[in-house]
């Protein structure tokens, strides 16, 4: 879902060094594999929209790769984990959700891939063309997602501590724009995002505006 206009930023575009996984990544949502320990330091998402009223809860993201896939891991502090959507391509961004947007060929700016995943591990994926047209019927193949909840989902009466998510996206999904797997030193464009909270008190955080 499109982000609101940020307040202001003069920060340079950040960079993240995606390291090759030192060992296999088990997609169980727990981010406890040795491969994650060997990843570049996690990025912390920023709160850029002062008009939003939801709680400011920390989110971090990391990425690694191997010959089979591109792996993204999120860890989210969350005192109240909520997610109701259960079917592929449901509007997961209305739940507690994390998102990654990927352009494997920065020479072009017309198309990027969107992967929006809620705290249940349900995926809404699409191709975005020219920032306006979503090809919602495009489905990535072979994607694996798992989450781990630190608390009880959809119980508004207790206090949770957070949740984490792991996703593996096979290289074949990007082959129209990139070699599979990319050679070392290849530069892609990407962004990380989180939607958090229950309407009307929702808040977005993001890696870079």
Number of strands: 12
Largest sheet: 6 strands, mixed
Helical proportion, percent range: under 10%
Average pLDDT, to the nearest integer? Answer: 94
Order of helices and strands: EHEEEEEEEEEEE
What gross morphology would you assign?
globular
Question: What's the alpha carbon Rg, rounded to whole Å?
Answer: 16 Å
Q: How much beta, percentage-wise?
A: 35-45%
Distance between the termini: 14 Å
**Uncertain residue ranges:** none
Q: Given the structure, what is the number of helices?
A: 1
Structural class call reads: mainly beta
Account of the protein in words:
This protein is mainly beta and 209 residues long. The chain contains 1 helix and 12 strands; from the N terminus they run E-H-E-E-E-E-E-E-E-E-E-E-E. The strands form 2 sheets. Strands 1, 2, 3, 4, 9 and 10 form a 6-stranded mixed β-sheet that branches. Strands 8-7-6-5-11-12 form a 6-stranded antiparallel β-sheet, with no helix packed on it.
């Amino acid at each position: 879902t499109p982000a609101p206009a940020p307040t202001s930023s003069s920060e340079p575009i950040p960079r993240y060094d995606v390291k090759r996984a030192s060992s296999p990544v088990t997609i169980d949502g727990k981010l406890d594999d040795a491969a994650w320990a060997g990843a570049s330091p996690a990025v912390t998402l920023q709160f850029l929209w002062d008009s939003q009223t939801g709680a400011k809860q920390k989110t971090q993201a990391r990425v690694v790769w191997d010959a089979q896939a591109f792996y993204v891991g999120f860890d989210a502090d969350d005192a109240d984990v909520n997610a109701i959507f259960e079917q592929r391509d449901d509007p997961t961004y209305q739940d507690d959700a994390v998102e990654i947007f990927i352009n494997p060929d920065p020479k072009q700016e017309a198309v990027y891939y969107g992967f929006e995943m809620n705290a249940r591990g349900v995926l809404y994926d699409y191709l975005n063309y020219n920032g306006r047209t979503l090809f919602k019927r495009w489905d990535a193949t072979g994607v694996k997602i798992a989450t781990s909840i630190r608390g009880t989902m959809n119980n508004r009466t207790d206090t949770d501590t957070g949740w984490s998510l792991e996703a593996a996206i096979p290289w074949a999904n990007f082959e129209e724009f990139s070699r599979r797997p990319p050679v070392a030193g290849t530069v892609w464009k990407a962004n990380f995002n989180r939607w958090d909270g229950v309407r009307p008190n929702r808040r977005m955080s993001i890696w870079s505006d």
